[in-house]
Amino acid sequence: MALIVQKFGGTSVKDRNRIFNVARIVMNTRNAGNDVVVVVSAQGDTTDDLIAKAAEITSDPSHREMDMLLATGEQISIALLTMALQELGVSAISLTGWQAGFNTDRAYSKARIKRLDTERVESELARNRVVVVAGFQGLNRSDDITTLGRGGSDTSAVALAAALHADRCQIFTDVEGVYTADPRKIPKATKLKEITFDEMLELASLGAQVLNNRSVELAKKYNVELEVISSINPVPGTIVKEETNVEGMLIKGVAKDNDVAVISIKNVPDVPGMSFKVFSLLAQKNINVDIILQSSGSEGKKDLSFTVPLGDAEAAVSALNSAASRFGGGEISVDKNSAKVSIVGAGMQSHSGVASTMFEALFSQNINIKMISTSEIKISVIIDKQDADKAVAAIHDAFIN
Amino acid sequence: MALIVQKFGGTSVKDRNRIFNVARIVMNTRNAGNDVVVVVSAQGDTTDDLIAKAAEITSDPSHREMDMLLATGEQISIALLTMALQELGVSAISLTGWQAGFNTDRAYSKARIKRLDTERVESELARNRVVVVAGFQGLNRSDDITTLGRGGSDTSAVALAAALHADRCQIFTDVEGVYTADPRKIPKATKLKEITFDEMLELASLGAQVLNNRSVELAKKYNVELEVISSINPVPGTIVKEETNVEGMLIKGVAKDNDVAVISIKNVPDVPGMSFKVFSLLAQKNINVDIILQSSGSEGKKDLSFTVPLGDAEAAVSALNSAASRFGGGEISVDKNSAKVSIVGAGMQSHSGVASTMFEALFSQNINIKMISTSEIKISVIIDKQDADKAVAAIHDAFIN
To answer: What is the pTM of this model?
Structure first.
């Protein structure tokens, strides 16, 4: 008898038929002899509808009241799914975030879980009930409802799995698992049987939006085995865990990220503290910098290039312009026509030739590389956006097929 | 500085404009120097929409899950109204039923308030905030969400006013107060300045659906002064309190109730225990009997007539038929063509001539009286349904105009 946490997103419970589809998956898991805790998100468009209601009232709602409003979405889902389970003859009970013991900090709309009191969930499991928990929400020290922010239901599920020492946490989505590349773009992309937490983190941050990063980090921290699995066709999906043993699978995935702007500052004085001045300015504006490239410099000057999310490009440029005198008045330019293409694989650093194979694949397609960044488990290149799909295909061919 | 509890129903907060209308009423009350606690129901059709969602899943939802589902309706309302208040510059905070301290028994879907812990509400008032509370809901001893059943938000408001020792509890509706008769039918009907709890209870049970009876009973029990007032045109409405001092206003209202069936049993043996047998049979079926008339009897037989709600008539007749032998096999008949017309006024018993004035008014219109029932503060007659409106007008003319 295993304990399994199953998480279903908003699309998976968007209407009556999808709710019963989920109820049957849960029933089958239960009938196979497992204890089951289910975490659900708000139905389909519910959250957007609630946000629209608030927008009619005010353009600047208080975060506390917004959380009060949005938390109703998951509460509706848990009640309906529990009714469906009961209709199928499965003993079940719904619990809101606060009933399930999610204690968070005070940061409305992006709260972090501080403590999880599993007493109620465990007592319901002991009564042989399937426990249906509202994801995305918790309670702060003032007894006020909070929400966990984007991807919050994944985080709720992983936190519950960790606190309950569950045997597995299954994240049900509309895809069948994690692929070596986007299967809509690369027909030869294959589903991975296993992937490590670190590889998953790199792939997620590189634009392969399958799992929310925060939930993967939490799963890594508490060593919760995840499975990414389809709610439409629940065949075995992709297991995400600490170490994998898949032989010969050096590169786990090729990912593309179009959300990249390259900002360059020419002729920065080559004196100590210049990088600090630039990047502390951006940090103050909450702008995340990814790849940084610094030219080696000549005649006491150097060039600085770095990437930021596309949506932050204008804010970054205007912040830099307003302080341009501090950087010696060098010319600031922004390039929004770039994409980042990356390969991820935990073992690549100990294998020679990975980078050269990647660069050869790009060269074979006559694709120019603008920037390069490497880490232990990934290599990223910045190239022209128009070349990105061709690049992913060529790299995927070189490594995986 | 007074403390005022204001309750707004679902129609009053059904959309953005109505929400801001309510927010302005609250703001004006606040700006007049009062502390304000607001109780709101779910928006317009929200509850019906949620019930429809559940009906798609199951024809027999668990009451617990139904309460979990329905409680989201008021939670949406309190968040939106609080946002509107904040948008108008009014410091405000929303509280769910459980946050506001409503502790109930375990009876899902028709829970009764056991205890109200006002600590949180009082601490928010002390911070100069308008407190916006979700009506209709509470928490039972298992920390599970309950709802109070029909008219629950009125009850929530009165309970809060009682526990907080509020100076007044205003129930906002779509009518401007309590009238001497239905103003849509009797153009001369006038709005009452004041009415006693007992008179209000009689009027409500007689078909003048302004206030929920349970909330009036609670207000009477804790001596909470109520005001029935319009949310569209919030001029002074009708005050409901223990004693009124309106001179010369003997009769407070004339009410009509079409929801009446008269059941007759002919030739019941005139022996002890017969009435008990009849009415205990109906009590077992949860059928409320209102007016009872018993003929004086002759030759060891008597006739028994009584009224029940129209919807219960068939059930009553079939229950009686199945046990007809116990009543000597007397003929059982049902009359669905009657109406009950009543006058209500706390002082009528000490004034002679009230009944005769009423009967004279009916006689002047040539209306036949089938049954008569009197109590300390009301006189009811059962007449033909087709005569009911004419009767109300004639009686209203005789007493009020």
So the answer is: 0.84
